[in-house]
Amino acid sequence: MDDDALEVIHQAERIVWAAGWHLQEQQVLRRLADTRGLAFARLESRSEVIQLVAYDGEHLGHVRREGPSGPAERWVAVLRRQAQRVGIYGSAAAAAAALARACGKATRSAG
């Protein structure tokens, strides 16, 4: 296969991956739509590594674990549509709360 054909295949794979991500995200956001206060849920049901964050049903962004889980785990909070990091935290709940604060939301509960 030549380089152009491989690039077309790689581009198609990226499009399929992005579409799959978007569908998963929409399903999780529908579940979070009726929540009150701070809420977060796994993007992929079998893994806690990426979680979407909402406040009163409004999508704020996501938190993701960087590296292995355990006592020294690190979670990154990322603003929606900006891919801007809010910071690095010791838990998903702390990262979600920081994301809410960065969006001007007062945190009431996490879960």
Backbone structural class: alpha+beta
- Beta fraction: 25-35%
Biggest sheet: strands, sense, closure? 5 strands, antiparallel
Mean pLDDT across residues? 89
Structural notes for this entry:
- The chain is an alpha+beta fold.
- It has one domain.
- Helix content is 37%, strand content 32%.
- It has a five-stranded antiparallel beta sheet.
Topology:
Elements: H1 3-32, E1 38-44, E2 47-55, E3 58-66, E4 74-79, E5 85-89, H2 92-102
Antiparallel strand pairs: 1-2, 2-3, 3-4, 4-5
Keywords:
alpha+beta, five-stranded antiparallel sheet
Summarize the structure.
With 111 residues, the protein is α+β, with helices and mostly antiparallel strands. It contains two helices and five strands.
